[in-house]
Every structure is written in C-alpha cells, then in structure tokens.
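Kindly inspect what follows.
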Amino acid sequence: MELQTITYVVVGMSFALYLGIAFWARAGSTSEFYVAGGDVNPVVNGMATAADWMSAASFISMAGLIANMGYGGAVFLMGWTGGYVLLAMLLAPYLRKFGKFTVPEFIGDRFYSKTARTIAVVCLLVASITYIIGQMTGVGVAFSRFLGVTKEMGIYIGMGIVFAYAVFGGMKGITYTQVAQYCVLILAYTVPAVFISLNLTGNPFPQLGLGSNFAGGDVSLLAKLDQVVTDLGFAEYTTNSRGDMLNMFMYTVSLMIGTAGLPHVIVRFFTVRRVSDARKSAGWALVFIALLYTTAPAVGAMAKLNLHATVNTAVKSGGDLFAEESSIVYEQRPDWMKRWEVTGLLKFTDKNGDGRIQYYNDATKNEAVKAKADAAGWQGNELGVNADIIVLANPEIALLPNWVIALVAAGGLAAALSTAAGLLMAISSAVSHDLIKGVFNPEISEKSELLAGKVSMAVAVFVAGYLGLNPPGFAAGTVALAFGIAGSSLFPAILMGIFSKTMNSEGAIAGMVAGLTTTLVYVFAHKGILFIKGTEFVDFVGGNNGWFGIEPNAIGTIGAIVNFVVAYAVCKMTSPPPVEVQEMVESIRIPTGAGAATGH
C-alpha cells in the first residue's frame, strides 16, 4: 500500500476513535463538563494527564531542539520534567483538597476577591492562548506534510476535530479521548526509536542504545556523532552550547515554574475523587511521561546522525567529509527530502552551482574546517533544516516501513490535538465558570452555565484557529513564552495561596499584575515592539542578548521573583486576610486532627 494511502487510513482510524469516545463520554452536567464528574480512575487520569502535558512541543519539537543543541537541549528535559514533579508534589494534592473546578476559582476564593479571580483569568487566557498557537501550528505542519493538504486546510480540519469532541464532550469526553491519544502518540514515538536504535547500535532500547557502540564497532554512538559534527564545523554534541550558565539556570527554572503553573495541567487533578488519588495520578502520569522523555535524547542524537549520513555519504564510511563524492547530488536526493521541501521546512540553495548538497556550519570559527571547505570549493551551507521535522521525518530518513511513517503522523496529530483540547477546556471554564458565573452572573442556572461553557469552547476553537492561521510576530517561541507567563503570574499566586496564611488579596493582585507585566514587557521589547529613547529596550538594559544575557524565553524566572517581592511588599502595607481565610489555608495543608495521637 502506498504511503499516502496508508497515512490516510491510520490517521482516519485515529480520528474516528477520538470522535467515537467523545460521543460515548459526552458531558451531561457542569461537573462532567468541567472536571469529568470528579471520579476518574487515577491510572486513567495519569494517562490523560500525560497526553495533556505532552504537546506538539514534546512530540515534534523537543527531540529536534536536542538534535540542534546537543547537551544544551537538556534545559527542556530538566525544566519540563522537574516542573511536573514540582506540580505533583507541591501543588496538586492541596489544590485537589480545596475542591474547586478551576485555578482562578481557587485564587478568587483563597484571596477573597473577585478582582483576584478576574486577574487570574486574564493570566490564564494570555498563557493558554499563547500556548495554543504552537499546537495549531503543529497541526498545520503535520497535516500539510502527511495528508497532502495545505497548512491552512490542516488547521481547519484540526479545528473541526477538536470542536467535535471538546465542545460536546467537555472534560469527560476530553479525558477518555486523551487516553486514546496517549496510546497513539507513545507508540508513534517509541516504535520508530526502537527500529532506529536497532539499526544504529543493535540495541532495541533507545535509552540504552544512546550509550552503546555505533554499528557494532568500538566507537560509541555519541563519540561518532561528536566526531562528525565537529569535523563539519558544528559545536560538539556532548558539550553545552547554550552559553551563559545564568541564562541556562533561569531558562530551566522558568520552564519548571511555568509547568507547575499551567492551568490545563493543574485542572486534571480536580478530576479524581480524593487527595490520595491526585497523588497516585501524579505518579502514574510521571511514569507515562518518562516513556517519551527518556527516549527523546536518543531520538535527537540518532536523527542527527542519520541526517548527516543521508546528506554526506562519508559519515558512515569514515572517509573525507569534504570530498566531492561525499556530498549527494541534489537531483538524486531521497524521496523524503522532496516531500519535506514542499512544506518549506527543508530548503536547498545551490551556492556554488555544483548541483550537490553541502551541509556544514559555514559560520564556524574552526579555521581547519574553513580551509577544507574552501579547498573543496564549498561556498556556504546549502541546506536549511527546521528542527520541527526531526521527529516527523525521522522514520523516513531511516527508511522505515510506510506503516511506521503513518503511525508517526497520527502520533504528532494526537499530541497537538490532546494539548489543544486541554487548553481550550481551561479557556472555556475560565470564561464560563470564573467570569460569567463567578463575577457577572452568580445566579446563572446549571443548564445555562453548561451552554455558556460550550459556547465559550466553540469561540475559543475559532480564536485558536485564527491565531494558528495568522500567528503573531512573536510566535517563534510561543511554547516557552507560555511557560514564562504562567510561571511569572499564576505559580507564585498559587504557591502563596497554599503556603502563606498571611498573604492577602491586595498583595496577590499586585504580584500577579507585576509578574505578568514584567514578562510581557521584556519579551515584546526584545522583539523590537517597545522602544525606549530610540533604542530597543533590551539593548538599553543589557546588550544584544538581553538583560544580563537572559533570553526572553527565560525571563519568567525574573517575572516570578518580581511577583513574590511585590506581593509581600504590598501585603506588609495592607490589612491581613480575615481569620476564616487563614484557618481555611491551615486546613488545606494540615488535615483536622493531625497530631492528635501524640499531642503535637
């Protein structure tokens, strides 16, 4: 069966499965719409949480980032997984014990203020809408490559699928659909990795294959990769190419606290019956997430080696990488390159007119590499490879069977759609439950609130689709930016709401506004949107790399610090929270009767 046909079959079957599950598990009450009835099994919830958490960024982009950055890409592994542990251990059980539907509802009740609740909704909407841009873009890329439609048509189809199972199914439908999507995406990620690990190292476990010898020889796979990339002028794969240690630390912390503050992940812990179930869900989710996250470094390394071996035939033979016969003739390029060129994510420019593809780092400071390139008549790198194609194109580069390629297409779409649905659910509940019911119309009936939730979801779907079709200028780093926004605004408020009895509403409100403003001003300033005295803001405060070399995507850490400082400063100057609120905070953290047996 041809690749296009089998891709249609596999992807179509996965879509039919999602829609069938959503129809079976459609929501009939506000409790089912917002928190799936609050009675989801911890194992099921753990799997759904993993699918909700592992977005297109995890499935499509992370291994590509690791492939491009090498050891420096560990910032994403440490930040995202560390942040999930932070959420699971520090926040989730207490939020579940509080027993509300949404994060803004917790903030509004804990800080006894509709204003606090409204500010939390604004922060949630900014973070979620920013995040969803990347998901819809990922849907468009996957559709355009594998189903032979335009990127725009791919986004329209994705909107229709999400609309069908999210609007009518609510959290209940989304939960069980995400279980199916997790099964699809984890198979799509690990099956090609097993094949490729066997081909390159003889070890069927990619996690172990990464440290095994290359092709049965005496050289390890990583050592071989280091040799190839450095000989072609790229940075050594196993050393940190991310630069300044402060920036890397800030970036990691920003991803961690952003993870712990993402509302669409937090709300998953409201769908179980007991606090102990929330803890079990977190444990199971970590197991399911680890299956992909421990595989990603191997996928990135092996894909990079296979890519170099495809373009430069001397990689496997150990010959002269700069010999004329080592670079492939463009007209004889493999079919996978032709297919990806159509998407624009792979580009060839024949700079020296020899009809061959030269792929190396023409900006290298290594004089020996420059000399070899000049001697070979190379006049610059001729191949542009977008990091987002690494995972999706990996089985094609490795010449795996068509059914594996089709499975990866279904997996990429499952990852993007599962997270998009979770984000849309968070947006919908923020509008219908927190704004309409919580602020503007507290007397609204359950039936009317459920209708408002579905209408809000439908509007959110169309807004997400529009932003995917017309991404704003800052969309290149949307995923990391979303984490920075959530980490600088929501995470400190949640943390202080749980662990500080003395934090009042004035402090929490001022902190959220200050944290969000700091992050957004810095990010937009770095893009040249905000100017001060005729100079870009980042140049004014710290040179071309930003304030003390901190990237915009890492500024969430600074925003969180500003949030904490402002919140405590304002709190000290205003009245303490009511006694009953302080008692409520105490009861959330320490169960009634704790210590009774010992008298402590």
Q: What stands out?
A: Strands lie at 346-348, 383-385, 531-532, 535-536. The CA atoms of residues 233 and 365 lie 8 Å apart. Confidence is low (pLDDT under 50) at residues 528-544, 592-600.
